[in-house]
């Protein structure tokens, strides 16, 4: 599975900590796949999923909004997702439109 690597369950976890980590992380996926390749797993036997939702957080410090910042809890539930810490892509798109937000790609953190 190439998603749900991080989420609100990281809160209080001594190994991962409560950092703003994406639930899909290219670095971690690459390392996991490397383990398969080193063990001669046939790549045609590997299936990767794609989530149409995101793990969402409430920030500990609203002014700290980049990778490495700390979260306090899962974000409020969405109108459709109805689960704390999860927002559907459509809910995220609506929040961005409603609040005229822009997105930022952190290339170093995604590598």
From TrEMBL:
Q: Domain GH18, which positions? A: 1-111
Keyword line = Chitin-binding, Virulence
Q: Does the keyword RNA-binding apply?
A: no
Pfam families with a match to the protein in the record: Glyco_hydro_18 (PF00704)
Q: Name one GO molecular function term.
A: chitin binding
Keyword Ribonucleoprotein on this protein?
no
Question: Which InterPro entries does this one have?
Answer: Chitinase_insertion_sf, GH, Glyco_hydro18_cat, LysM12-like
Choose any GO biological process term that the UniProt entry carries and state it. Answer: carbohydrate metabolic process
Could you tell me the superkingdom of the organism this chain comes from?
Eukaryota
Family according to the record: Belongs to the glycosyl hydrolase 18 family. Chitinase class V subfamily.
Question: Which PANTHER family does the UniProt entry name for this protein?
Answer: CHITINASE, V CHITINASE, PUTATIVE (AFU_ORTHOLOGUE AFUA_6G13720)-RELATED
The name this protein carries in UniProt is GH18 domain-containing protein
Q: Which organism is it from?
A: Penicillium subrubescens
Q: What is the lineage of its organism?
A: Eukaryota, Fungi, Dikarya, Ascomycota, Pezizomycotina
């Amino acid at each position: 599975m190439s998603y749900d690597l991080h989420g609100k369950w990281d809160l209080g976890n001594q190994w991962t900590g409560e950092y703003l980590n994406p639930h899909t992380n290219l670095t971690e996926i690459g390392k996991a796949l490397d383990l398969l390749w080193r063990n001669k797993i046939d790549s045609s036997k590997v299936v990767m999923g794609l989530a149409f939702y995101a793990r969402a957080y409430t920030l500990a410090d609203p002014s700290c909004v980049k990778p490495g910042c700390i979260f306090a809890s899962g974000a409020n539930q969405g109108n459709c997702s109805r689960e704390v810490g999860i927002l559907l892509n459509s809910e995220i798109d609506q929040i961005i439109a409603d609040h005229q937000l822009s997105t930022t790609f952190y290339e170093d953190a995604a590598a």
